[in-house]
Amino acid sequence: MASLGFPFSFSQPPKNNPKKPHDSSSFSRAVMAAGSIAAVTLGFGIGMGVAISHNNKKNDPFDFFKSQPSPLWGSLSLTGNSGETVTDPKTGFPFPAILNDNRRLLGIGLRRKVLFGLKNIDVYAFGVYADNNEIKNLLSEKYSEFSASELKESSKLNEDVMENDICMTVRLQIAYGRLSIRSVRNAFEDSVGSRLKKFGGGDNAELLQSFTSQFKDEYKLPRGAVIDLSREPGHVLRTTIDGKEVGSIQSKLLCRSILDLYIGEDPFDTQAKEDIKQNLAALLKE
């Protein structure tokens, strides 16, 4: 990858340490156990998607919703060159350094699920973008007295980014080729629904329904499909699937809840959140 002018950094991937050989009998038992689980998996029709339908949730012995952090990412430098891309080393998906002419890539991460408590599934890679001019215009004065190191440690920086009317996009690139649109809809019902309750209180069922209903069964999500969740001026959440707009909703609460999944207190990928905070700090000190 070419080294570009603006010093945005991502964590280095860890080096692989040599593993000690496993006891052959233990390995055989593990293989037999895995085979048994695989047979059960086929019997229950896992090919329908990562998530089990809510209609079967009470009887579902399999928990797919335990998140796992992504591996650490490679170093990166970014500029405003719209032709540059950043490749996610885990999935191989490219992310443009600049999106929609003025939204700069701040970090990439991975949404993972644990299957049967044994196997990690890479569901999708994601990239978080923000309008660099709006970041500076709205936040530079407030944080002008902070050093870069103080900004990196600030617990308020990400909060201000989520609260302010800053144009942002979270781009999802589907990595699990057997993911169904129903699984996405159900997963958002859980994750976004919990955030709506956390930040809005009360009953936000109608708002949640207006968002999740955009993910209609007619849409297919093969490996490499792209979902963009974009906050536009006036706290409008615009959703596109493979470049086609499927809906727009004006709601500050909904925008905040979506962003909280990726840069909030309990994000899907903690390392990606730290990378994003570090690059926000660098942006404000540019």
Overall description:
- This is Chalcone isomerase domain-containing protein.
- With 286 residues, the chain is of the alpha+beta class.
- β8 and β9 form a beta hairpin.
- The protein contains eight helices and ten strands.
- α5 packs antiparallel against α6.
- The protein starts with 23 loop residues before the first helix and ends with a helix.
- It is globular.
- Strands 1, 4, 5, 6, 7, 8, 9 and 10 form an eight-stranded antiparallel sheet that branches. Strands 2-3 form a two-stranded antiparallel ribbon.
Pattern of helices and strands:
HEEEEEEHHHEHHEEEHH
Low-confidence parts? 1-8, 12-16, 18-78
pLDDT average, as an integer? 79
E-strand count: 10
The end-to-end span amounts to 22 Å
Radius of gyration: 20 Å
Major sheet characteristics: 8 strands, antiparallel
Structural class: alpha+beta
How much of the sequence lies in strands comes to 15-25%
Helical run tally: 8
- Categorize the overall geometry: globular
This entry's quaternary arrangement is single chain
The portion of residues assigned to helices is: 25-40%
Transmembrane segments: 30-52
GO molecular function, one term: fatty acid binding
Family: Belongs to the chalcone isomerase family.
Organism: Papaver nudicaule
